[in-house]
Each structure stands twice: as structure tokens, then as C-alpha cells.
Amino acid sequence: MKLLLNTTSPYARIARIALEEKGCTDVVTEVVDPWADDPRLLEANTAARVPALLTDDGQRLTESLLIVLWLESERPSPSLLGADKTATIARAGVAMGVIDAAVHTLIGRKITDASFDESPVGLRRRRSIVQGLRRLEADPPAYVSGPPDLGVIATLVALDYVRFRFANATWMPAVPRLDQLAARLAPRAAFERRRPRGGRRPAPDRRARGTPPRAKSPRGPPSSSARCDASRPPSRSSPRPMSTATATA
């Protein structure tokens, strides 16, 4: 299988974490630029969005949550839907709203300029980010051990992405419960290696209203490939990292 992505996309990161937590190790990654009308991406996805997963039988799967749905069907164990599937999907939906609002803010800047953030539409996007994070903070997904569910994955991808793209934003709400969740998942290789390129998640500044300091210097993930064998369960050891390369998004 081949996964088309860029290294900062939160949608691609959800798919990559899901593949890795499912024990997939036969996935080759290929970095593309969604803004450049890359022919490889357009062939895989007419909408020119990442991620796009090319299966071994030639199918083209797009949209991160649909890729997760396919994984759940093809490899049901370990499940990423948790014990309470409805609650998991509900929390994942809130997190995806945060991600969408953050991404659309950056697209607004690209189309206009940084003043987009203070426009009526930009302020609505900001409200969606803040309210979404507050809702997740009030009822965070639970994590005990083993592969995390989709609610955990989407929540932490959303938190990482917002802090990556809006590192000095004074409007970021304090989310200590989500910070605790993030600390518990930090040792898992799938989360650490798949952080957006350009910096690690800043530690929350407890002296301010949850505003994190600047991220540390970049540390790129190692390059490799991965394999997915649906006939055997994933190893309990950390899976090998997928290959990555620098891209902008």
C-alpha cells in the first residue's frame, strides 16, 4: 500500500497513526504538495486532498475518517472505536471540528492575508476552535493502555495542530485535562514520530491562560517503510516508522 500525504496535515496524521496503531507495516509513504496540483495526488484524489491511500488491489481511498472506517472493516482488531463506540465517534467529531476550523483559517490567510483571522469568518473559525477544545476538556476521552481509540487520536491531533499553527495565540483556552492525556500518550511511537514537521508540541505555560511557549527546535522523524499484515495481530513492540519528507501545508 502507498499513502500520499504531506508532513503537516492533521488529516494525514490521523490516518498514519491509525495505520500504525493497527499494526500496518507495509505502507510506503509519499510526500505530495496539495497546493501544487501534483499529478500523483490528482490521480489518487480528484479533490487534491491528503491523505490518499492506494491499496494493493488498486483502490484509491480518500478522507482520513473513511480510511479509518476501511481499516476497522479490514482489520477489526485492535479496534479504534473503543468500548463505547458512540461516545468515541462523538468526541472524534468535536475534534474534527477543531481541526477543520484551524485548517480553514490557514486557507483564509493563504487566499487573503493574516488579517483574515480578525474578519467575521475568521472569528467564527476561532470560536469553533476554542469552543471545541473547551468541550473536549470538559469531557476528555479516556485512555488506559494499548492502542488508543479514534476519540483520543483525533483529540490529540487537534490539540497538537492548533498549538503548532497558533503557537503564540493568547486566545487558546487552558486545557489541563487534555494536557494530561497528551502526556500519557507521548511515549507511544505513533504519536511522537507523527508530529507536524517544524517543532514538537510546546509544553503548556501554567502561568498564563493555557498559552504555550514557542516550540523547541525541529526534530524530524526517521525514514522507513511499514507493513500491514491483516493475518496476524500487531506486535506489542513499537512499529517501524513510515518514511517522511519535508513539505509545506
Characterise the protein shown here.
The radius of gyration is 17 Å and the shape is globular. It has helices at 10-21, 39-44, 64-74, 85-111, 120-138, 150-165, 176-185, 189-193, and strands at 2-5, 24-25, 28-31, 52-54, 60-62, 227-228. The chain has a four-stranded mixed sheet. Strands 2-6 form a two-stranded antiparallel ribbon. It has eight helices and six strands; from the N terminus they run E-H-E-E-H-E-E-H-H-H-H-H-H-E.
Write the layout of secondary structure elements.
Layout: E1 2-5, H1 10-21, E2 24-25, E3 28-31, H2 39-44, E4 52-54, E5 60-62, H3 64-74, H4 85-111, H5 120-138, H6 150-165, H7 176-185, H8 189-193, E6 227-228
Parallel strand pairs: 1-3
Antiparallel strand pairs: 1-4, 2-6, 4-5
Low-confidence stretches: 199-226, 229-248
Number of contiguous helices? 8
CATH class of the largest domain: Mainly Alpha
Give the H and E element order. EHEEHEEHHHHHHE
Indicate the radius of gyration in whole angstroms: 17 Å
Classify the fold: give the CATH topology of the largest domain. Answer: Glutathione S-transferase Yfyf (Class Pi), Chain A, domain 2
Structural class: alpha+beta
CATH architecture of the largest domain: Up-down Bundle
Beta-sheet strand percentage?
5-15%
